[in-house]
Structure formats: C-alpha cells, structure tokens
Amino acid sequence: MSQRSRPVALIAALTVALLLAGTAAAIVGTQHLRDEDPVASSIFWKKRHGPPYRVCFLLGRSDRVKVSVVDFSDREIRVLSDGELQGGDDPHCFAWDGRTSSGQPAPPGPYHLQLSLERADRTAVSGEHVTIRAGGAQP
Fold first, then answer.
1. How many whole angstroms separate alpha carbon 16 and alpha carbon 29?
2. What is the residue-averaged pLDDT of the chain?
3. If exposure means fewest CB atoms within 10 Å of the residue's CB, which of 6, 80, 92, 138 is most exposed?
4. Where does the pLDDT of residue 78 fall: very low under 50, low under 70, confident under 90, or very high at 90 and above?
C-alpha cells in the first residue's frame, strides 16, 4: 500500500466504523421507543351533534393527566379534567359544552383532545377531532 493510499484507507475505515455505530444507536433507540406503552389509545369523539360533545379514550397507565380541548394550533381552549386517572381497559369519557375556559362559545373550527401526563412527562394530541360549524357540529 502506498503512503498516499494509507490516509484514504484510514478515512474509509473510520467512516464505516461511524456508520456502524450510528446504526447500532438507532436500533437501540427504536427498540426503546417500541418498549414504551402508548400514552393513550382509542381516542374518539362520540358521533353526536353537540353541544355537549363527548370524547373518550383509554389510558395506557395510571398518571396525573390534564385533559384539554385544543384548536389546530394546539392552543388550549378548555380544560376538561386535571387529576389522577387510572390506566386500563375502562374508558375515560368527558363532555365538552363547546365553550372556552372563559365561558364563551368556541369559534367554528376543528378541535382535538390533548392529554398531558405528568409522571410520564409526555403529551399526546388526538388525530380524531370534532368540528364546530356555525350551524352545529360534525365529528
């Protein structure tokens, strides 16, 4: 091997080693994420024209949970609950009267449920939403 090709070979070997180390770290990180339970599941708005609107979900584990209605910009519109909730197969359901925390009717638009778990230090926003229209709502 010539003296010129030694640095190139060293750089190539270091690059391969770094790529292998990065791949191993990504695999470990992905497995860690798979091992974590989901924050919540089965989040859905009951199909009824409101108000009141009703939303239900299952919680993966017990925690202190702040349950809020948020708009599409994730601005909190109304807190539905802020306390200890049990995880398991029993759904948690909350009614929302379509009003903001100041008591005013929420403006027309789509709204999601946001769950903030204190001990798990995680927040989830539902993909399901309810849309308030000028003439009523459609889940």
1. 20
2. 84
3. 6
4. very high
Into how many domains does the chain fold?
2
Residue 111's domain is classified under what CATH number? 2.60.40.4070
If one compares 48 and 62, the residue with the highest pLDDT of the two is 62
pLDDT band for 101, please (50, 70, 90 cuts): very high
CA-based nearest residue to 92, from 112, 120, 118, 62: 62
Domain containing residue 9: 1-36
Beta strands in 2-138 (DSSP E): 40-45, 53-59, 63-71, 76-85, 92-96, 109-117, 122-133, 136-138
Same domain, 24 and 75: no
Residues 122 and 55 both lie in one domain: yes
